[in-house]
């Protein structure tokens, strides 16, 4: 059995859908189906029950899933250890500046426990680059927030946070239990520098073109609100600082915390980072 075929099998077993598994593997469905059939022929066992209702694992398939995950994990660990022995085991991770997410702290601890010999290099970026250098090829993976241009990237959502309007504590709207974007239509909002990803800019401006000061960092946003009464946006539950308050926005979609990496990158250090990120944020 080839490791590549086992990865195909695990993708189908986890998705229980050949189309979704093919998309996850960045391949078309016919060769994936053929690979699974060859694997079943090689093992002499049916691994999936296929019906109009969908795909389900057989007892043999469930057994192979446990073994395949263990084999793939061991293969990844072997690659990492060899790279470490050769002095080449490094991972560069991009983060948005100003983040103090406890999920990231759990991830750092888990990654160090699993890969104590790997050097993790951290690249912190400002709010003008939501991919944290990923599109520019400056990092291997990014722990960030969406939305942004995902062309050429694979993105996995880790959590979705409700958001609120960041206001001065003495703002006339500060005492409201909740707000809608229309309540802030005539206000000045912060903006990001020219050239910032338009999806990212639009989200943090509530889907509208806005006027207001240009900021690059979380602290600059807070200061713009404090000094000028500008409207800011922030995930609920984040520390906002003295003199400021956050009022929930009921008609804003949540802010997605995501992990992203280059499409098709098979680096085992990245794969392990993604797996541990999912566990850290869902734990």
Topology:
Layout: H1 3-15, H2 18-25, H3 29-43, E1 48-51, E2 54-57, H4 59-85, E3 90-96, H5 102-114, E4 119-125, E5 141-145, E6 153-161, E7 163-168, H6 198-204, H7 218-228, E8 232-235, E9 244-248, E10 255-262, H8 268-282
Parallel strand pairs: 3-4, 3-5
Antiparallel strand pairs: 1-2, 5-10, 6-10, 7-8, 7-9
Helix pairs in contact: 1-2, 1-4, 5-8
3D structure, described in words:
It is a single chain. α1 crosses α4 (59-85) and α5 (102-114) packs across α8 (268-282). The mean pLDDT is 90. Helices cover 39% and strands 21% of the residues. It has a five-stranded mixed β-sheet, covered by helices on one side. The chain has eight helices and ten strands. The chain has 283 residues and is of the alpha+beta class.
Helix count from the secondary structure assignment: 8
* Helix-residue proportion: 25-40%
The average pLDDT value, as a whole number, equals 90
**Helix/strand order, N-terminal first:** HHHEEHEHEEEEHHEEEH
The counted number of beta strands is 10
Shape: elongated
How far from one another are the termini?
Answer: 33 Å
**How many strands, what sense, and barrel or not for the largest sheet?**
5 strands, mixed
What is the structural class?
A: alpha+beta
Low-confidence stretches: none
Strand-residue proportion: 15-25%
Sequence of strands across the biggest β-sheet: 4-3-5-10-6
